[in-house]
């Protein structure tokens, strides 16, 4: 399962990519707005932080297909052709995807709330489909189940498209999707750091250290022997 950082914050990205095995960064207009600087400049800075093989996902704002296509071209010119262009699954969005697919543009279909929207995005050529797991939970639906249903359908359709599930509020939601074998999740930095948390892990490290020091010296490691 690929794991992306869902943020546009430089400090968070720097901190996470130095310590965790992540595959890229996903942004959206709301995340960029939080940074309060020119969004395109921020996206360029993010791109510069990432290794070449790490993906950057950035969203178009245009309302109609032809403007979305022009915006996607502009973004790829400034952020690189490998940029994944996020396009919402509106009528105009699907129309734009269908057209952009002809020239092999990397696309992530976003703002997905139903499996049927994901099917249409897959047929229009999106590489990733992004259902909003927690936002579904918040309206009384089962976000994890919707994501698993999308993964199952896309696998059966034998499309090249898979799931890049977004909008998580807890580790359990992510674990359930890992169990289901989905292609990718994108997770906010603070929740990403929680993926490793267990109090007994920290206690085990303290106990091992104390035992080792009891026959060596305070702060000793293997290198001191
Ligand atoms: O890009 C969509 C995703 O970032 C939504 O996450 O936490 O705002 O529901 P959230």
Outline the secondary-structure elements:
Blueprint: E1 2-6, H1 10-19, E2 24-26, H2 29-35, H3 39-49, E3 55-59, H4 65-79, E4 84-88, H5 91-101, E5 107-112, H6 115-123, E6 128-131, H7 133-138, H8 143-157, E7 162-165, H9 171-180, E8 184-187, H10 189-194, H11 199-215
Parallel strand pairs: 1-2, 1-8, 2-3, 3-4, 4-5, 5-6, 6-7, 7-8
The structure holds SN-glycerol-3-phosphate (G3P).
Small molecules in complex: SN-glycerol-3-phosphate
Helix content: 40-55%
CATH superfamily: Aldolase class I
Give the N-terminus to C-terminus distance in angstroms. Answer: 40 Å
Estimate the global geometry from the Cα principal axes.
Answer: globular
Number of strands: 8
Radius of gyration: 20 Å
Strand count, sense and closure of the main sheet?
A: 8 strands, parallel, barrel
Strand order of the largest sheet: 1-2-3-4-5-6-7-8
List the domain count as a whole number. Answer: 1
What's the pLDDT, averaged over the residues? Answer: 97
Structural class: alpha/beta
């Amino acid at each position: 399962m690929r794991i992306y950082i869902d943020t546009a914050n430089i400090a968070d990205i720097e901190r996470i990519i130095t310590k965790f095995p992540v595959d890229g960064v996903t942004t959206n207009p709301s995340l960029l707005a939080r940074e309060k600087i020119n969004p395109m400049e921020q996206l360029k800075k993010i791109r510069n932080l990432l290794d070449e093989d790490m993906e950057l996902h950035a969203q178009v704002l245009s309302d109609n297909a032809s403007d979305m296509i022009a915006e996607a071209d502009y973004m790829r010119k400034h952020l690189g052709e490998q940029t994944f262009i996020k396009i919402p699954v509106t009528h105009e969005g699907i129309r734009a995807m269908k057209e952009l697919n002809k020239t092999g543009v990397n696309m992530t279909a976003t703002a997905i709330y139903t499996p049927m929207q994901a099917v249409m995005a897959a047929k229009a050529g999106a590489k990733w489909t992004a259902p909003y797991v927690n936002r579904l939970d918040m309206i009384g639906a089962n976000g994890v189940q919707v994501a698993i249903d999308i993964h199952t359908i896309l696998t059966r359709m034998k499309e090249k498209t898979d799931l890049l599930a977004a909008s998580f509020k807890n580790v359990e939601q992510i674990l359930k999707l890992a169990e289901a074998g989905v292609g990718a999740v994108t997770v906010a930095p603070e929740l990403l750091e929680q993926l490793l948390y267990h109090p007994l892990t920290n206690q085990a490290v303290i106990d091992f250290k104390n035992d080792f020091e009891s026959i060596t010296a305070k702060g000793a490691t293997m290198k001191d022997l």
